[in-house]
Amino acid sequence: xxxxxxxxxxxxxxxxxxxxxxxxxxxxxxxxxxxxxxxxxxxxxxxxxxxxxxxxxxxxxxxxxxxxxxxxxxxxxxxxxxxxxxxxxxxxxxxxxxxxxxxxxxxxxxxxxxxxxxxxxxxxxxxxxxxxxxxxxxxxxxxxxxxxxxxxxxxxxxxxxxxxxxxxxxxxxxxxxxxxxxxxxxxxxxxxxxxxxxxxxxxxxxxxxxxxxxxxxxxxxxxxxxxxxxxxxxxxxxxxxxxxxxxxxxxxxxxxxxxxxxxxxxxxxxxxxxxxxxxxxxxxxxxxxxxxxxxxxxxxxxxxxxxxxxxxxxxxxxxxxxxxxxxxxxxxxxxxxxxxxxxxxxxxxxxxxxxxxxxxxxxxxxxxxxxxxxxxxxxxxxxxxxxxxxxxxxxxxxxxxxxxxxxxxxxxxxxxxxxxxxxxxxxxxxxxxxxxxxxxxxxxxxxxxxxxxxxxxxxxxxxxxxxxxxxxxxxxxxxxxxxxxxxxxxxxxxxxxxxxxxxxxxxxxxxxxxxxxxxxxxxxxxxxxxxxxxxxxxxxxxxxxxxxxxxxxxxxxxxxxxxxxxxxxxxxxxxxxxxxxxxxxxxxxxxxxxxxxxxxxxxxxxxxxxxxxxxxxxxxxxxxxxxxxxxxxxxxxxxxxxxxxxxxxxxxxxxxxxxxxxxxxxxxxxxxxxxxxxxxxxxxxxxxxxxxxxxxxxxxxxxxxxxxxxxxxxxxxxxxxxxxxxxxxxxxxxxxxxxxxxxxxxxxxxxxxxxxxxxxxxxxxxxxxxxxxxxxxxxxxxxxxxxxxxxxxxxxxxxx
Length: 800
Ligand code: 26W
Prior knowledge:
Elements: H1 6-21, H2 30-59, E1 63-67, E2 71-74, H3 77-83, H4 87-96, H5 101-105, E3 111-113, H6 117-131, E4 136-141, E5 149-153, E6 156-160, H7 165-168, E7 173-174, E8 180-184, E9 187-193, E10 196-202, E11 205-217, E12 224-233, H8 239-243, H9 247-259, H10 275-300, H11 306-309, E13 310-315, H12 322-333, H13 338-348, E14 349-352, E15 363-365, H14 366-372, H15 374-394, H16 399-405, E16 408-409, E17 412-414, H17 415-422, E18 425-428, H18 431-441, H19 443-448, E19 453-455, H20 462-465, H21 471-481, H22 502-526, E20 538-543, H23 552-568, E21 577-582, H24 590-607, H25 610-613, E22 616-620, H26 626-632, E23 638-641, H27 653-659, E24 663-666, H28 672-679, E25 685-686, H29 691-700, H30 704-710, H31 712-723, H32 731-740, H33 745-764, H34 766-778, H35 785-795
Ligand 26W binds near residues 115, 117, 121 and 652.
């Protein structure tokens, strides 16, 4: 497809503004310009997708379907203009009418249909697959309300509904003709017809799944990915039921149906086990599998070759019910034998695990499943019977082992076990995580099916955080290494030859400084920054969901220790530093909310002491989201990646920050291990126990109290939590640290503090620091999502 010409865009803009709002560009409001521009881009993307699709279908290429309960898309306008390579034309056209493109972007809300890492990864992969011209479709739910808006009220997190549709709606292309019926509840009838066993489903309630498509263009490619988002609607209210007198049932079904796509569950790494969530999961799976089957049938007229032409990827266990749903269609609708159906299913599905946190591993109560999706339940029971039989054989009747791997245990269905049983591939998201999966989470399965287990280290849609977010650095790179790096992340390596070039390093320093100023300006205008921050101070950044395993409280404890030190030594030499935090806590996560309040209180109290706050400053940025990350990453000096080793599956913020020249201060956890490999030991600051040391310490019995008793710095910092910070005490945080400390904050404290001290020393050695920064930029190429999706294509989906 040819790119849109400048004349065409100008013409369409004038035309759209006129026909939609009856205004000329000069008189149009920013919202009107945003809407018109988005509509024009959307229509172009739609056409581009159609021509890409035609080409793919005529070539009979394998389709990738990526099922995920979350896609954290962020904004679409800016990324589309860049990927379509029309951003400068649009900027100049708008300038003709005295309109500032940057201000137009601000009219778009983030599509926040995800919680954090897993959702953003899915969005990054749509971009990368389009860029690599891999035919891909993402499936998810069109939540009316995405991840909540976080307001910090006197330090406490409060949650406001994220009503993103006004403004976000322009990016949704309705496809009502592709609606799918999804059936819940009801009864099963079994009967035999000669030797055939039939099962039929009766008295079910129907929910309509209506799709809306979003398009993601590849950069400098013909590819376009589609994200198909399902909305739940009750099928025009069951009048029959109503007339038969079942008034209450008719009404309740109506409201249950509409509730399904109402809101994203805001839990990250913690399963709640609510029936509405289960309905959401089945709704996504049934609608998507129905759609995939329809697509495939329309091209090939049979499902026999499904596994040759289709790969379905399950993003963590949340869409696991897609497995029994496809079995249901193959068995009940197509009449395939069990073995044939299972063969197709197993060769179609692949599963990625994204977390080792025990509380995140999904288990569903069998009675809940049985009542909400009875046929699906009976298929899972049969899958499990056959699977356990096979495991018994393989293990020579080792009952304990078989039981450990069983999908159904203690009246619960273990979704991860089902995924492993039903997929031809299981992968972790960093080298370390993939090892932990094999040695720990799925150790038994690994013993029997070793070839299933793979690794694909995560990657990011790096153009979003470089080309689109850091123009200064992009220009410097282009002038030094040409612009091939925009399409090929490996090219960034070439920047490494400038590590001792003072002119380049000075240029880097200037760019960072400008980015810091820009961030502060933005934060003052659009965020909750209402005090001065020194752009010459170190911007030390920890931005991610709030969770004890990520250890924001380790960071906080060290700040309190510094504060204690500065109270006693007000004239001490201290390299000025601003700690920037941003994090949403799951609404029901008590300790996480306490930690946010504590960080806020530290920030307030420090600012009351003018002398100290000239050196040490803390800012808790509210409502962290994709758009804020795009502004903050380019302005960061230090990237805090301080999870307890063995807990963070990969991390992706670490990749975005290094790409923008921030130095990782982190543990040997997740992808940090590979960042260290990529940049070399001199260009990263590592501290803390390794995953092995953590296991060994746990095995010996970890006692945080010993650290508290024997280490004065720790004692005084924890005691300050008891005595009060800004007039508030944090007894629960302190007690947790002293008495249980499940993520071993105290054990890693000294080492962390030493790493912090080292980071100041390195920062003060200006050219050394800049050289480290440059080497991080040069080493970031392997963390591109382009590389990651090529790994998936080659090692898992069997294409390329
Ligand atoms: C059922 C509730 C729930 C919701 C989300 C459980 C678990 C999740 C996700 C799996 C949590 C998540 O986002 N994991 C993150 O995935 C990223 C992408 O692979 C990794 O980089 C992060 O390390 C991992 O925490």
